[in-house]
Amino acid sequence: MVEQVVNERQAKRMKENFRRELHSGGTHEEARIRVMEDIQDMAGLDEQEARTATEQIEEEILQELGHVGKLDVPAIDARAQKRWYTGPSKDDTFWPALESHLLDTKGWTPSSVQSIDDLSTSVVARLAPPRSKDDFSVRGLVVGYVQSGKTANMTAVIAKAMDTGYRMVIVLAGLTDALRNQTQERMEADLVENHPELWERLTTLENDFDAGTRQGLTRPDRGAILAVVKKNTHVLARLRDFLEQTSKNTCRQLPALVIDDETDQASPDVSRQNEEEDPSTINLRIREILARLPKASYVGYTATPFANVLINPAAEGNEQYHQDLYPRDFIISLPAPPEYFGAETLFGRDMLSADDTDANRQGLDVVRTISEDEVERLKAIGNGEAGPETALPPSLDNAILWFILASAVRRFRQGGHTTMLIHTSRLTDAHSSFELAVKARRQELLHLDPSERRDLLRKVWRQESTALPPDRFGHAFPDEEDVLDDADELLNKVVIFQDNYMSGQRPALTSEDDATAAIIIGGDRLARGVTLPGLIVSFFGRNARQYDTLMQMGRWFGYRHGYEDLPRIWMTSSTGSNFRELATIEAEIREDIAAYSDGESQPIDWGVRIRQVPGMLVTRAPAMQHATQTHLSYSGEHLQTIRFLHRDPDWLSRNWDAGARLLQRAQQDPSTSETENAQGTVIHNVPVDAILEFLSQYQTTHQVRTDTKALARYVEKYADQELGRWNVAVVMPASGPASDKALGPLEAPRLVNRSAMSDAPDECTDIKALMSRGDILIDVDQPPPAGIESNWRKLKEYRAGLQGGRGFPLLLLYPINPDSRPSRGSNRQPLNAVDHVLGMGLVFPESPGGFSGHYITVDPDKLTGGQEAESDDE
Q1: Could you give the 3-state DSSP secondary structure of residue 666?
Q2: CA dihedral in degrees (589, 594, 596, 599; nearest 10)?
Q3: What is the predicted pLDDT for the residue at 410?
Q4: Three-class SS of residue 150?
Q5: How would DSSP label each residue in 95-110?
Q6: 12-41 as b/e, with b when 16 or more CB fall inside 10 Å?
Q7: CA triplet 20, 22, 28: central angle to 5 degrees?
Q8: How far is CA 48 from the centre of its chain?
Q9: Which end of the chain is less enclosed by CB atoms within 10 A, N or C?
C-alpha cells in the first residue's frame, strides 16, 4: 500500500492530486510525473521511493477508473481505458450542495441518493475532460424510462460537470413553454438556489432566452452560466447569434455541457436529405449552436431512443452544418429504479429467449379493457352527438367511480393530489365534449338516491379492491364503509377540466395547494413530459402506431409511493398488447447495449437493433430514412411457441397435420433411427428437407421470433452446414392422457397440460412457457450432472458436449391437451381450445451468421464508408 512509504494523510492528498491532474485533461503519464515531483517535495523521498509510491497511487486510481468504466450500467463506448473522472471530490462545490438538498429538503433516502451519485458519475466519466488543452466535441445518449426521474440524473450530471471545470450549461427543454418552465424551475430549485452567487442565468422562470442588449458572452469570474431554452427555431436562432457575437477565445474558456431533454423529439434531422438540401430546422439550429462552442459535450436524454439511434452516423456536415447528433461516443442505459412502475411492470413482456428467466411475464392486474363497441361510443361522444346512446360507456363509468374510491383511500393514508387522465383524442373539440359528458354524469350520480349511488360505489369497490392486494406493498385498506362515506362526499368536490392548447388557465396542482381530486381531459399536451401529480386512473382510448409516440403517452409510468396498489389503466386489448410488445422491445434494446458494454465498441462502430412489429412504425417515417434491415440470428438459441389461435379449428388442424406429416416422413426415411424414453419419442438424423417442409406448413401467431418463414430462411441458409440433419422429438409425459387423434405414426400420443394466462390477447391464448428445461436433453441418454438442472445455458452446453461439441439441431413437438386445466390456486385459466393444439420448440447449435429481417438499425459501415469504397472501385 501507499501508506508503506508515506503517511495516510499524505497518501490521500497525493491521490487527490493525481485525480485532479486527470480531471484537467492530462494523460496518466503527465499526472504520474507531476505527482511524483509532489511526493518528493512533500515527503522528502528519494526518486525510487517516490516512483514506488506514485505507481501504487496510479494503480489504485486506475482500479477506480476501471470500476467507473464498468459501473453496473450498460453502456456502449470505447473510452473505458481513458477515464478521467472517478466521482466527486471532497473539495467539490455543486454536487455536495445538491446531495444535501436531495437528502434534507426533498427527503430522498440515502440509498436513492447513492444511486443517483453512481449513475451520474458514469455519465460524467464519459464526457470530455473540460480542462483539456485541445478542443473537443462529444456526442452521447442516456436512455432512461418514461417518467422515471431522468431530470434528477441530469441535475446530478450538471453539478458534477461544473465541479470538474465545465463553465456553461445549455439545457434544451422540450417544445412547449410548459416543459421549459418546468425544467427551469427544477434547475433553479436543485442547482441555482444552493449557490445563487455562482450562477449567471441567461433564462428565468418568466423568460426564455433573449439576448436583449447584450452583445455576446463574457466569462464570469467564477461559477457557471445557465440557459434553459425551448426547442423553438426562433429561440435557438437567437442563442446561436448570441454565441456568434462572442469571441472564439471566450467560448473556448467556457467548456459547455449541452443537455438535450427529450432528445428524440424535434432534434433528429428528418429532412429528406440530398446534397442540395439543408437539415431540418431545429436539428440545424442545434448543430449551429454546437459549432460555435469549441469545447462541448452534447448529451441527449430520452426514454424512447428509436429516432436517435437511426440518425445517419456519416452525416458529419460541412462547417455550416457541423456534425449531426448521432451518439457516436457513448450510449448509456440507465437501470429502472426499484420502485418504478414501467411498461414491463404493468403490462408484462415476452421472454427474449428461453434463458430470459428475469422477464416479468404477466404484469400487474391493473389493466382493464375498453371493448370495441365502447370505442364507437367514445367516438360518438367526442363528435358531440347527443342522445341516450352516447351516455358514458360502462368502462369509463367504472373508471370514474374507481377514481373517486381510490382518491378516498389515498386521503385516509397520506393525502395529496389525485388525478385521473382521460385521453381519447388529440382534438380540442372532443375534449370539450368529454368535459360536458363527464360533468353531466357526475350530476346524474349526485341526483341518484343515496342508497343507489352507494350500491354503485360498493360494486366497483369490491371488484377492484381485491385485484391487487395492498399488503403486497405494505399497505392496508380502511374499512369499506368508511371508504364509501368519504367517496360519496368526495364526488361533489372533484374538479373536472381540460388541459390543451386552447384551455387557458387551469389548476396548477402544486405541492402548496390543498389536496385536490381532478379529472383531466386532454391529448397531445399531456402526451409527453408532463407529470400529473397523484395519477391513479388513466382512461386511454386513443390508438397510436409509432413506438415512441405510444410509449410517451403512457403518463401512468413512474412512481406511486404510498398508493402502489391503487392505479388502474383502461385501454383496448390491442393497445395493451402493443404496450407489452414495446416492453419486450425496450428490454431487447437494453440487452443489446449491455452486450456491447465491454469498452471495446463505440456506437459509431455498431448500430442498435430495433425489432419491428407488424402494423406499427418504429418512429416517424422521415427519421427512419437511414434505417436498414439487419441480421437476425438464431445461433445457440432455443425458441418455443406460446401463443395459439385456440378458437380457430382450421388453424389448429393445419398445424396438427403438419406435425403428423413430419413424423411420418421422418420415420419412413431409411437414414433415420427411433428411440423412446420417459420423456417421449425421438427420431434421429432427420434430413433438413423434412424440417423445411414442416416449417412451410406450420403456422405461428403473435410471435416475431418464431415466425416460420424467417425460421425456414435461416435453416435453408445453413442446410449444407450444421443444420443439415436434425433430431425430431415428440414430448409426451408418462402420465399424460392419451389423445383420441393420431399424430402421424403415433396412434394415441400422450398429451401435455398447458393452461392459459389470464391476460392473453382477445384473439389468441398465451401459455407463457411451452418447454421445460429437461426437454432439451430428450435426445441424449445420460442425465445431467447435479447442479445444472435449472440452468438453460449449462444444460445446452452439456448436451452439445455429448453430441460432438456443437450439438444437433433439435425440433420438439408438443401435443397439448385442448382441455388443459390450471393447478389449484393458480391465477391461470383453462386452455379451452376447440381442437388439439400442437406446440413447437427449437434448439439451435451455435452458427456464425444470420439473415436480414425483423430488425432495423443504421449500418455505420455502409453509411460512413461503403458508398465511398464502391465509388473508388469504379
Answers
A1: helix
A2: 140
A3: 95
A4: helix
A5: HHHHHHIIIIIS---H
A6: eebbebbbbbbbbbbebeebbebbbebbbe
A7: 130
A8: 53
A9: C
Q: Look at residues 818, 811, 770, 771 and name the one whose alpha carbon lies nearest to residue 645.
A: 818
Nearest to 345 by CA among 367, 366, 360, 365: 360
836, 656 contact by CB (below 8 A): yes
Cell of 374: 365502447
CA distances from 260 to 171, 183, 222, 282, 334 (A): 6, 12, 25, 12, 16
pLDDT of residue 779: 92
Global pTM reads: 0.74
Quote the cell numbers at residue 482: 368508511
The residues, any chain, with a CB within 8 Å of residue 20's CB and separated by 6 or more, are 89
**What pLDDT, on a 0 to 100 scale, did the predictor assign at position 150?**
86
What DSSP letter does each residue of 28-74 carry, written as one string? HHHHHHHHHHHHHHHH---HHHHHHHHHHHHHHHHHHHHHHHT-SS-
Give the other-Cβ count within 10 Å of 332's Cβ: 25
DSSP assignment of 377-417: HHHHHHTT--SGGGSPPHHHHHHHHHHHHHHHHHHHHT---
The Cα angle at residue 515 between residues 451 and 148, in degrees rounded to 5: 115
Which regions in the chain score pLDDT beneath 70? Answer: 1-35, 38-45, 55, 57-83, 272-278, 314-322, 353-360, 386-390, 503-508, 510-513, 528-529, 595-601, 605-606, 614, 631-632, 759-762, 847-854, 859-874
Contact 779, 621 (CB under 8 A): no
pLDDT of residue 362: 77
**All cell numbers assigned to 650:** 382450421
SS3 253: coil
Q: How far apart are CA 510 and CA 181, in angstroms?
A: 14
Q: Is 659 helix (H, G, I), strand (E, B) or coil?
A: helix
DSSP 274-312: -TT-PPPHHHHHHHHHHHT-SEEEEEEEES--TTGGGS-
d(CA 702, CA 644): 8
Dist CA 691 CA 722 (whole Å): 14
C-beta separation of 28 from 86 below 8 A: no
Q: Which helix (DSSP H) or strand (DSSP E) does residue 750 occupy?
A: none
Name the phi and psi angles at 684, rounded to 5: -95, 150
C-alpha of 61 from chain center: 33
Question: Rounded distance, CA 286 to CA 276, Å?
Answer: 20
CB 527 within 8 A of CB 549: yes
C-alpha cell at 180: 421549459
DSSP 456-493: HHHHHHHHHTTTS-GGGGT--PPPHHHHHHHHHHHTTT
